[in-house]
Structure formats: C-alpha cells, structure tokens
Write a structure and sequence with these properties.
Organism: Gordonia insulae
Number of helices: 20
Helix content: 55-70%
Keywords: ATP-binding, Membrane, Nucleotide-binding, Transmembrane, Transmembrane helix, Transport
Number of domains: 2
Distance between the termini: 113 Å
CATH class of the largest domain: Mainly Alpha
GO molecular function, one term: ATP hydrolysis activity
Oligomer: single chain
Subcellular location: Cell membrane
Pfam families: ABC_membrane_2, ABC_tran
Largest sheet: 6 strands, mixed
CATH superfamily of the largest domain: ABC transporter type 1, transmembrane domain
Bound molecules: adenosine-5'-triphosphate
Strand content: 5-15%
CATH topology of the largest domain: ABC transporter transmembrane region fold
Strand order of the largest sheet: 8-11-12-6-13-14
Structural class: alpha/beta
Length: 638
C-alpha cells in the first residue's frame, strides 16, 4: 500500500520542518511584537509593565531561552498534529482497501485485503511511536511553560513591589490625579487596590500571556503562535486535498481553503463585536471584587472597634452594597458570555459537518478516497480551530487586557507620585534647619507659612497647637510624604533621622521583629532587644520574643508606644520626630520615658508633637501653630 508520507525518513523531515517553522515564527514574533509594542495602546502598556523582563541584563537570557523553548515546543506540537493527520489518512485508506477487497473478486481482492491489513498494522506501529513522542512532548512543554510562568511572575511581583515602594509611592500615590480611572473606586481618591493589582493581576498577566502566546500542552491550537503555524500548515494540506467548486456557473479552484477562511473570518468579526464589552466588564470585575475583599479585611482589622460600637448592621449593609455591585457586574458578564459563547458554540457545531458537505460530491464520484475525505475533515477542523482560536479566546484576551490596564495604571500612579513636590531636603551633620517651609492642605488652605528654625545636638522642640492645626502634617512634610509643601529642610541623612507616627506600626511576625522594626531583628540581636524592653518598662515581654502574634492587637496602645521608645533606643538616631508618642500612657510613665531618652541619648535632637503641658519640661523650645499659617517659636517657659 502506498502511504501518504514516507514514514521512514519522517524524523529528519519533521526536525527540519520544526527548525524552519520555528525560525520563521520567531522572526514573525519579533517583528509583529515590535510593532504591537510601538503602535497599539495595549502593546505599549504591556511593554511598559513587562519590557524590563525581556531586555533587563539579569533576566533577558533566561527569558528569551524560555520563549524560544516554548516556541519550538509549540511548533513541535503542530508538527505532531500534522503527523496524526497523515496517520489518520493512512489508517482509513488501509481500512478502505480491506473493505474494497472484501467486496472484490479473486486475486485482486485478496491483494487489496493483504495490502490493507499490512497498512493497518503499519498504522498501529506508527501511532505507538508518535503517540509516545506526543505524550513526552506535552509533559516537557507543560513543565517549561510552568517554569517560565513562575519566573516571570516572580520577576514582575518583585519589580512592581519595588516600584510601589520606591519614593514612598505606596503612600503618595493617594495624592495622584489619575483622571477617570480613579473615579468611583469607592476606597480612596488615588489608585484602587494596589494589593490586588500586585497579587492577582500579575498572576494573570504571566499566566495568560504564556497560554495565549504558546500552546499549553495538549491541544496545539490554543496559542497565537501554534494557531498561526497550524493555519499555514493545514491550509497547505487542505489546499492539496480540495478541489474546484462551481458556484453560479463559475468554477472556483481550491474552494475548501477559501471557504474555511471566509467562514471563520465572518464568524470572528461577529464574535469580536459581541465580545468587546468584556474588556470593560472584566476590568470592573477585578475592581469590584477587590473593593469587596478590602471591605471584609477592614472589618477584620477593626473587629474590636466594630464590636464595641455594635456596628454589625452598618458593616453588614456596607458589605452587601459592595457585594451587590460584584453580583450586578457578574450578571452583566454572564449575559455577555451567553451571547458570546452561544455564537461561538453554534459556529463550532456547524463546522463539524461543513467539510463533509463540501467534499461529499467528490467522494461520491470516486475522485477522492475515504482517507482523503477524513483528512480533509481533519485539516478543516484544524484550520478552523486555529482560526477560531482568536474568536474563542477573546474573553481570555479581554481578561489579560484588563489586568494589563490595571498594572499599567499602578505603574503610572507610582511614577506620577514620584514627580509630586517634596520638600527640598539636604543632608547635614547632626543638626536640623528649616528654611521658609510652607505646608498646605490638599485644598490649598495654609497650615504653616514661612517656618524657619534651627536645632542643634541636644535641642528639644515641642510642637503644639489646636487639633487640626497641622502638627502631624508638618511631620509628614518633613518626612517627604506630603506633596503640598515648599521650602528647605536640612537634617542628618538616612536612618539617622527617625520619624515615629502617632499610632506605632507593628509589623506581622514575632515580637523581636516588632521591636526591632524598621531594623532587621538579626541586625539588632535578642540580647539588645531584651535589654531595651526592660528599660522601657516592658519586662513581662522579654521571654516572648519568638512568639508569633498579631502584636498590634495583643499589645495595648500604651505598650505599643513603649515599643516605639524601645526602637528609638535601639536605633540611636541623631534626630527623632515623635507624634504624640506618649498620648496613651499616664503622666508618670511619660515622665520616665522622656527622662530615659534624654539620659540615654543626650545629643539626639528631639521634636515632639504633644497636646500635654507635662511634656514641655523635657524640651527646650516650643513651636505653637496658631492657625491660618501663622506660628510662634519661643523657649519653654517663655
Ligand atoms: N489627606 C488629607 N486630605 C485633606 N485634608 C487633610 C488630609 N490630611 C489632613 N488633612 C487636613 O489637614 C489639617 C491638618 O491635619 P493634621 O493631622 O496635621 O492636624 P493635627 O494638628 O495633627 O491635629 P490633631 O492634633 O488632631 O492630631 C486638618 O484640617 C485635616 O483635616
């Protein structure tokens, strides 16, 4: 029996084919990718978020090695489908031979049966070999794909987190005006849910990009590259198998090829038209679910307060309002999907019988064999599936697109927040100088105007003023957080200047991490931590350093404020700014803590914000904010 291809030399033919197709595809990927990254909005956004992974010095070799490996394996997958299609042709031709032989006469009939039988067993052997290769190829591809995705995700998470942290962007991006994107987020005026962008959107970008570009193991038509290669190679097979067709008296050659392209093109245009709103709906799904989750976390964080207030009803209503928005959006997605899937599914169903309908007349006339007929259907199916990949995956593209928009939005907000004004800060040895410092509210109201002062080692300044006069905001401005500032600020560099906020921040983890913050516990050492806990009147905690608790919930506010003093003693800064650092302890303890600080760190410049007159005695000067931008600086007791 004559086989459809020469199986004996197929290894070399296939290897050459894979090499050539891979080279062409890589070139195509680079050229098309370059233009998409330059010309389209989503391409530019994608490149802005991910570009560094593919061109950065540390990652590019590994990244491109993975891309090339996945590309080669995707094309290898397409080659396997081609081999399966020829194998199918041989199998059915062999069976047809046996069938004809059984109905035939004499020696010719027996010859046909023998040829058919040997063809059948040959097909079984061929199948055994190519199926084994197919399984191994699929597993290796799965592994490479997962490894690539993990690396990409790890890199992107680290990159986006570092970008978010740089220049206090995670704080200052709340002041960035993002136009429409930030409206209605329901949480804060700046960027919404950065946590979710960093966690789930990054996962989605790494995963979907890989799955949409390359095959993912199994079917070879589920990625852009294998889809395109499949279209080209199976169109060629279809080309050879298809005959002319006469429509309205005009004979059109190779009609099957034109038919499949036309069929899918029309179906795709309509599918895109139906599916387009999914991009926006997916974008909103991410935002609304994140809002809902954030509201749940808020209740968890504020559990004690909510319980004291008996605020369950308000919380429940608030949660349900957010949840209703999630569900409303979900229904919109469901209805859109019903139309989208309904259309795609109908088109796919129709495509099952389409090639048989077209080829049947030629088969009935005996111009093609049963093998040719089934291979036509197979090739049509492959071209159809590959072409339809774009139409069927439109919702995945929409999902990816939404995640890219959200990640790009985060990067945009981070960058913009770094361009916001910050007080002109210079490094200076062991002294503090403020020159013409202005502090305003976001609405433009003046809190402090033209503040100039100078502090030398050992000086201590207490900042006073009525509530809302701008005491905390002054510290925010000096720490480089508040963007509505002007003036100059000179102070000792880096962590020689320490800012302590009103409510001490307690990180997750064990107690030693909480006390050593912002230093690492290993840099400080347990002995030093124990000693300092004794000195700030927390002796009952010295044996609990290794305990993992939510320490911000376990320690009382007064204990947390003592932890803040412990940090000052550990860090031994040249300057420390403290915002109502003793508001939660009694006056006796306040006296002891300040006395301790002055005794242990006599040269440290101390700036305290305080409402209490009892703190005055530990300071040398008073800065009183008197409202409307004016202020008064005088010695203590003056
Ligand atoms: N993010 C913000 N957006 C708008 N206004 C703000 C913002 N943060 C603070 N303000 C306003 O700036 C003013 C100064 O606030 P600030 O917290 O500095 O006051 P304070 O003197 O420290 O008050 P208190 O003694 O009550 O702690 C207040 O009127 C406050 O409402």
């Amino acid at each position: 029996m004559e086989y459809s291809i020469d199986w004996a030399t197929e290894v070399w033919t296939s290897l050459r084919w894979i090499a050539i197709a891979s080279a062409i595809s890589l070139l195509g990927l680079l050229v098309v990718g370059f233009f998409i990254a330059r010309m389209t909005r989503w391409g530019r956004q994608f490149w802005r978020v991910n570009g560094e992974f593919f061109i950065g010095k540390d990652t590019r070799v590994v990244a491109w090695a993975f891309v090339i490996a996945l590309l080669v394996f995707s094309i290898f997958g397409v080659r396997m489908s081609i081999l399966f299609s020829y194998w199918g042709n041989d199998l059915f031709t062999a069976l047809q031979n046996v069938g004809s032989g059984l109905t035939g006469e004499g020696a010719a009939g027996r010859q046909l049966i023998d040829a058919g039988k040997s063809g059948f067993w040959h097909s079984m052997w061929v199948f055994g070999i190519i199926a084994t290769i197919h399984v191994v190829r699929t597993l290796v591809e799965l592994y490479i794909g997962a490894a690539f995705e993990i690396r990409w995700r790890r890199w992107l998470t680290s990159y986006a987190t570092a970008d978010w942290m740089r220049g206090n962007a995670f704080y200052r991006n709340r002041f960035v005006d993002l136009g429409d994107d930030s409206k209605d987020s329901g949480i804060q005026p700046g960027i919404d849910n950065p946590d979710q962008r960093i966690e789930s959107d990054i996962t989605n970008v790494a995963q979907s990009s890989r799955l949409l570009l390359f095959s993912s193991g199994g079917s070879s038509t589920n990625g852009v590259i294998p889809a395109l290669v499949t279209i080209v190679s199976f169109s060629q097979i279809l080309w050879n198998l298809s005959g002319p067709m006469t429509i309205w008296g005009v004979e059109i050659p190779r009609m099957m090829v034109w038919l499949v392209f036309m069929y899918v093109l029309i179906a795709t245009v309509i599918a895109f038209w139906i599916g387009h709103p999914l991009i926006r709906l997916n974008f909103w799904r991410e935002r609304l679910t994140a809002n809902f989750r954030y509201a749940l976390v808020r209740v968890r964080d504020g559990a004690e307060n909510v319980a004291f207030y008996r605020g369950e009803r308000v919380e429940h209503d608030g949660l349900m309002t957010r949840f209703s928005a999630v569900i409303a959006n979900y229904w919109q997605i469901v209805f859109r999907n019903l139309k989208f899937v309904g259309w795609n599914f109908s088109i796919t169903q129709l495509s099952v019988v389409f090639p048989y309908l077209v080829q049947a007349p030629r088969f009935f006339e005996g111009r093609i064999s049963l093998g040719d007929m089934t291979q036509t259907a197979d090739a049509f199916g492959n071209v159809h599936d590959a072409l339809s990949f774009f139409r069927n995956s439109y919702d995945d593209f929409a999902d990816l697109r939404a995640s890219i928009i959200r990640l790009d939005g985060l990067e945009d907000a981070d960058q913009k927040s770094r361009t916001l004004p910050v007080i002109a800060t210079t490094d200076r040895d062991r002294a503090v100088r403020l020159t013409d410092v202005d502090i305003n509210t976001p609405n433009g109201a003046e809190l402090i105007r033209d503040l100039s002062l100078s502090l030398d080692p050992g000086d201590a300044l207490v900042v006073k003023g009525r509530s809302g006069s701008g005491k905390t905001t002054l510290l925010r401005g000096l720490a480089g957080l508040w963007p509505f500032v002007d003036g100059e600020f000179a102070r000792p560099a880096g962590d020689r200047t320490l800012f302590l906020s009103q409510i001490p921040y307690i990180p997750l983890g064990d107690l030693r991490t909480a006390v050593a913050y912002p230093a690492l516990p290993d840099d400080v050492g347990d002995d030093a931590i124990r000693a300092v806990l004794e000195r700030v009147f927390l002796p009952h905690l010295v044996d609990r350093l290794a305990e993992e608790e939510d320490w911000s919930k376990v320690l009382s506010p007064g204990e947390q404020q003592r932890v803040a003093f412990a940090r000052v003693l550990l860090t031994r800064p040249d300057v420390v700014f403290m915002d109502e650092a003793t508001s939660a302890v009694d006056e006796g303890l306040e006296y002891s803590l300040y006395t301790l600080i002055r005794a242990e760190l006599p040269d440290t410049i101390l700036v305290s914000v305080s409402h209490r007159s009892t703190t005055d005695q530990h300071h040398t000067e008073v800065l009183e904010l008197t409202g409307g931008g004016s202020w008064d600086l005088r010695p203590v007791g003056g």
